[in-house]
Q: What sequence folds into this?
């Protein structure tokens, strides 16, 4: 039973989606992240993925107020990412209501700090952001490609106790061309104990159901919902049916 995690990406306090991480290809879907979060909660989801795209670009948290407003207005479990580079940033994220934080760039550029955060906050509260382009991990709002390949990163941090990984195939993100299912299958084959969150390219209910059949634990989706291609109520019913059969 795959966990459904809608995404709210924020620029200038608005709900947006990019295509392939390109800030020049931005589409606004709402003026209020708080209201959008309430809509998701009303539909029955329990968890929300919030990305501070201004923060990712600026290399420090920018939209903490939006996070705080979402946390105050809903009971959603929020995982928050974008611009978390320092102790002050991660404190801000948790203080403003995040239950988990997604850390990508720091895991590459400052591994000792990332390891310290795992030890301090616990692996249940840290998600390794492994966003890939041509097999290599990208950082700093996908503006830079590192010299670290995906599986080297996963091998390293699973050995240090990381449990949760969010993997976005950048070439798929925002394209509505279907997820990188084969990549996610390979990750699960090599790291079956990890809680993998698939992200990028989801275009329909059937895409999510196919990920579920492939054994992927969780999926993040955004644009497909905003464009009316996903029926969350139908997917939750599907999950409930699968759960009752197990």
A:
């Amino acid at each position: 039973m795959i966990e459904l995690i809608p995404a709210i990406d924020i620029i200038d306090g608005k709900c947006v989606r990019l295509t392939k991480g390109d800030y020049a290809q931005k589409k606004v879907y709402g003026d209020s992240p708080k209201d959008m979060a309430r809509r998701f909660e009303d539909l029955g989801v329990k968890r929300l993925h919030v990305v501070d795209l201004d923060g990712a670009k600026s290399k420090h948290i920018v939209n903490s107020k939006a996070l705080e407003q979402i946390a105050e207005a809903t009971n959603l479990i929020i995982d928050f990412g974008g611009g978390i580079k320092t102790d002050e940033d991660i404190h801000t994220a948790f203080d403003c209501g995040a239950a988990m934080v997604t850390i990508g760039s720091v895991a590459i550029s400052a591994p000792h700090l990332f390891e310290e955060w795992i030890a301090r906050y616990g692996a249940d509260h840290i998600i390794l952001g492994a966003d890939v382009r041509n097999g290599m991990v990208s950082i700093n709002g996908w503006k830079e490609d590192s010299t670290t390949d995906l599986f080297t990163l996963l091998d390293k941090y699973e050995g240090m106790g990381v449990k949760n990984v969010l993997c976005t195939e950048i070439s798929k993100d925002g394209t509505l061309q279907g997820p990188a299912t084969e990549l996610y299958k390979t990750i699960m084959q090599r790291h079956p104990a990890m809680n993998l969150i698939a992200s990028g390219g989801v275009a329909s209910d059937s895409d999510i159901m196919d990920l579920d059949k492939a054994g992927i634990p969780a999926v993040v989706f955004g644009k497909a919902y905003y464009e009316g291609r996903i029926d969350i109520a139908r997917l939750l019913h599907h999950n409930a049916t699968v759960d009752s059969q197990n």
Observations:
- The chain has eleven helices and twelve strands.
- The mean pLDDT is 93.
- The CA atoms of residues 96 and 184 lie 31 Å apart.
- The first helix runs from residue 33 to 43.
